[in-house]
Request: fold
Amino acid sequence: MSGLFEIPVLGIIFQLLDFLINVFTLNGVIILALTAPLALGALCGVMNERSGVVNIGIEGMMLASAFAGWFVAAVVAQAMPGSTPGPLFGFTVPLLIGLLAAVATGMLVSALHAWLSITIRADQIISGTMINIVALGLTGYFDLLLSQNPFPSAGTFSAFDPPGWLVDLPFVGWLFRMFLNQNPITISVIVLAVLLQIWLFRSRWGLRTRAVGEHPKAAETVGINVIRLRYRNVILGGVFAGLGGAWFTLDFGNLFQNGMTNGRGFIALAALIFGRWHPMGAFFAALLFAASGSLGIAIRTAPPPGQLGELLQSIPEQVLSALPYIVTIVVLAGVVGRSIAPAAVGQPYRRESTS
Amino acid sequence: MAARIIGQVLVPAGAILLALVVGAVVLLISSPLVTGRFDPLLPLATYAALVQGSLGSFNGIVDTIVNATPLILVGLAVGLCFRAGLFNIGGQGQFYMGALAAAAVGAGLAGSPPIVAVPLAVLAAAVAGAIYGFIPGVLKAFAGAHEVVTTIMLNYIAGFIISWAVQGPLRAQGASFARSPDVGNAMIPVVLNQGTGHEGHLGIILPVIAIVVIWRLLFRTTIGFEIRTVGANPDAARYAGMRPRLLTIFALTVGGMMAGLAGATEILGVTGYMAATYSTNIGFEAITVALLGRANPVGILFAGLLLGAMRAGSGLMQIEAGVPVQMVDLLQGVILLFLAADVIVRRAFRIRAATGAVTEVADVTRSYAGKSPAAGA
Reply:
């Protein structure tokens, strides 16, 4: 193997491949954890856009849910101190109530977006932008007021501990560790993506949803209630945004910070497009973005030895931090420039009798 | 004529009023956190401080105009793109790149005569902003990458570029924190209120010039007519032989130039240098400005002055009423809510005028995800 590294010029490419494989297998757990909010945001987008509604407010929905989950969990924890963590994932009553609050917030904000997009027939991109601005202002306002009298957070869920023999298996052990040694929200992401993929393409609901997103008028003529189905899907999409928000303050970290979603809602949107509006496609796109982010961290903290290490370390730190954002643009412009969105996305639907 | 103008102003005015009501409700709910007890008068105290800080004195009025200057310029950047059916969320990044270019060129020319240094630094900012608008324009026109996502990504990348430049090549020697050197003679001269801490710099005339230029461009030139046609009806524009790709790139580039100029007014008119941690929310505020001004250059002037006043008054609001400045962000977002849902405003105030709040804004959602006028049929 090391013979390959000595070849001039080509050797450095083999070194790079070796380094990339190492980064991915060694950091699988953190990469999948960082994938979770992106993938959940993208699944929210799938629910919206497959039924014909554009949602660029995912960022704001996740931020609002992150705040609600953190705040409610902390308040409940104060009201009932001494609750002991359950045996699995460290479940406590405050954390579960916080999780419910986050999901409810996601659904509530989604209901507002649904009402503006479907009933009011407002411009859907402007509605999404409004959600982003209001969420940032509202959470920032209350976060600042609450931080004057800080109170303890409710902590976080803890990771599932897979049996040792499983994660030590040769060659595939790291995969088990990556997908099982995780907190509950992160573990659920792959399950949710698979289920949504099956529902969308193998169930009656999925067929109807895709019909409403592609050709609402035809769907209406065969008896599908376009308005009701769009409402239901947009609000259910809020569940994913709510889980994505809860990931920030109940799963990955335990504190709320102003503007902590930091553009992940928009990267989720890019993952949705890159994944061609398929739940599994969006999941793997999110995985790519998360991996590109942790590559930058790995170069800074554990650079590869020799020539390649020197080369990679000469790259400014900011370029590495910007990597996920750069990859998003390259992917949008190059790989999927011509991918086709659901045909009716962004078009408000008018029933014939009412127009 | 007068009736038409009133008809256009009614819905935005109603949206502002309703937003103030919503803001008052939030203030009432949060008053125990602000003052330690339930305070029914907190909304009044907050809004009074906001008005006092922005319009209550000559200093306040100068602050309002200085704060409005970049808002109007970036508002034009967003508004012009709205006319072409494009949603430019990248005002933020274009502003950052303009500010960085102004700081770099200004620092380089700090010892040159002002008559040379100021115009060159301002020009550099305009060019940098234009380039940063050109990039998403090309990506949209030739690769079909939607500008909503690319401009947001470019905003984050601009933040990293600033952080790299100011901590690296542009870092001032001997400064206690990472910042660029003083721009010295490239500082735009102060013309109002010298030495009061509420100075007004000459850059406040830039928005006025820009409004005239953009207005003439949109309503008195062929390319302006083509921009409005592409925005209103891309199919008709293509049948008429217009070139949507070129217009997309043109609108985003000129918009980027406006946002870049805004960056120059902040660095050369207000701060005098750039810190590595420099951050602003101007790109999103400008969206509210552009929509409130109905994507019309004159409307954007008034909308920018209104939001500039809110910015100028927010300091006194925090000191006197103890309300965090984020209240202003919240109010702006809620104004946007009522502009999007103008039906509520119409019902609340029984407005019957036929014009909607955002009719001049081309339907930006229509161009989403590959069905853009630029991507071809």
Notes: The domain at 2-360 of chain B is CATH 1.10.3470 (ABC transporter involved in vitamin B12 uptake, BtuC).
